[in-house]
Amino acid sequence: MPRKERQIQTIAYLQDKNKILLAMKKRGFGEGRWNGYGGKVLPGEDIANAARREILEESKINAWGLSKSGVIDFSFNEKVNKILEVHIYRITHFKGHPEETEEMKPQWFNVDELPYSEMWPTDKIWLPLFLKKYSFHGKVHFQSPTANEAISYDIRAKTPKGIEIKLIQRE
Q1: How many other CB atoms are found less than 10 A from the CB of residue 143?
Q2: String of DSSP letters for 122-153
Q3: Chain-centre distance of CA 24, in angstroms?
Q4: Beta carbons within 10 angstroms of residue 63's beta carbon
Q5: Distance (Å, whole) CA 54 – CA 48
Q6: Is 90 helix (H, G, I), strand (E, B) or coil?
Q7: Alpha-carbon distance 39 to 36, whole Å?
Q8: Taking a C-beta distance cutoff of 8 angstroms, is the pair 158, 164 a contact?
Q9: What is the largest CA-CA distance in the chain?
């Protein structure tokens, strides 16, 4: 089987104390799901700068002070012939108010009331690690971008005290 090409992407979550900014994807990949802000890293672009650019384009917010929380490789059996290497950031320093754009409709959520049933199926697995400020990395495999559950995942996390956590679901 030929090796799949990797596409570097970002996703960033703006956090203000116990609130997190999500956006409903209005078109394209991930349409109909709540998510953070992000997208493809352009050739020659720094990954963190790509995250800042995507936030500005999709929400009209200027962000700085990004902290990287993790990296997850997403793969699919159908429709997406690439491994999406997604770098996940937390942003606590930003200026402006989120605006709706052609692509995204923003909404602040309490971290204890996230709409997991309207998000990517494995967000409920790794996003709690993000919210606890754990560092993590892993792999998630779906049948297709519209699937309502993952075929498999392997997420490894480390707490601020260095305790390792493994969350695994095999085919």
Answers
A1: 14
A2: THHHHHHHHHTT-EEEEEEEESSTT-SS-SEE
A3: 13
A4: 23
A5: 10
A6: strand
A7: 10
A8: yes
A9: 47
Domain housing 88: 5-169
Residues 6+ apart with CB under 8 A from 32: 24, 25, 118
| pLDDT at site 147 | 85
Residue carrying structure tokens 């919210």? 131
User: What is the full per-residue pLDDT of the chain (171 aa) written as tens digits?
Assistant: 557 899 999 999 999 999 999 999 999 888 999 999 999 999 999 999 999 999 999 999 999 989 999 999 999 988 778 899 999 999 999 999 999 999 999 999 999 999 999 999 999 999 999 999 999 999 999 988 888 899 999 999 999 999 999 999 987
CA nearest neighbour of 37 among 109, 118, 91: 91
CATH code of the domain containing 36 = 3.90.79.10
pTM: 0.94
Per the listing, tokens 């596409």 go with 7
Residues comprising the chain, all counted: 171
Alpha-carbon span 52 to 65, nearest angstrom? 10
Q: How many domains does the chain have?
A: 1
